[in-house]
UniProtKB/TrEMBL annotation:
It catalyses: beta-D-fructose 1,6-bisphosphate + H2O = beta-D-fructose 6-phosphate + phosphate. The keyword Metal-binding applies. Belongs to the FBPase class 2 family. Its cofactor is Mn(2+). It comes from the Bacteria. Keywords: Carbohydrate metabolism, Hydrolase, Manganese, Metal-binding. Pathway: Carbohydrate biosynthesis. Mn(2+) 2 binds at residues 85, 88, 213. Mn(2+) 1 binds at residues 33, 57. One of its GO terms (molecular function) is fructose 1,6-bisphosphate 1-phosphatase activity. This is Fructose-1,6-bisphosphatase. Pfam families: FBPase_glpX.
Amino acid sequence: MERSLSMELVRVTEAAAQASARWMGRGLKDEADGAATSAMRDVFDTIPMKGTVVIGEGEMDEAPMLYIGEKLGNGYGPRVDVAVDPLEGTNIVAAGGWNALAVLAVADAGNLLNAPDMYMDKIAVGPEAVGMIDINASVTDNLRAVAKAKNKDIEDVVATVLYRERHQHIIAELREAGARIKLINDGDIAGAINTAFDKTGVDILFGSGGAPEGVISAVALKALGGEIQGRLLPQDDAELERCIKMGLDVNKVLRMEDLVRGDDAIFAATGVTDGELLRGVQFKGTYAETQSIVMRAKSGTVRFVDGRHSLNKKPNLVIKP
């Protein structure tokens, strides 16, 4: 992939973030998601690439755009797999909460796992603890491993977990072990990425969330030198049958090379609402401010991009609910 593609992709997440941020706190998650998806699609059409959506908003008959198999880009440039989450945290935006992102990832064609839309058990860490975690081990054993890798006591380790009934046993074991916990209501892509940045204060992610989000997180952590492990968790016979048809072993631990192959991939995200890592969109009357992150696995380059966008010169961004 051309290195210039990195900055082109930031334009896509910036547009999606600005469109969805207009809906913050209005209690209308579907409208926020639709705005992000539409804006992302419009800008993708201008990007020099031949992209195919492998993780998107649904199947062709279920999603009006950014569906799995859709072609993106202007038809020139590299052939790439595209994974999109136009609004990671629809409920977050609806409630005006923390850590909503507009997110995408790309890799050379054939290199992203076409993950089915189902749950995936996950564990993720930043660079210091790579090679130390094991999804098959207990929560306590993984805490000990991360504490040792980061030269901390377990009592100083911060674990992030989606606040769900299905995670009560994880939360109980974390508390029994004495670790600190950051419970999040939504947005486990942000939760996974935060493990790789000291300023967020997060050391490890536990628990199950969306499998597509696991693949997107893997691209980010590959660029950051971190690690994520996953295992598919089909909830019924239909989901199990879908895995079998896709040639996916539900008993297999999915590691970094299973989720994103090769040595090149790009991740981009723009904050929609404020979070530990990125500021949310701020509207200033005649302009808007955004903060984004873009990273490339091949070079290990991580860029934070502050954007100022004239709303007079980009009338499509002036559209209001």
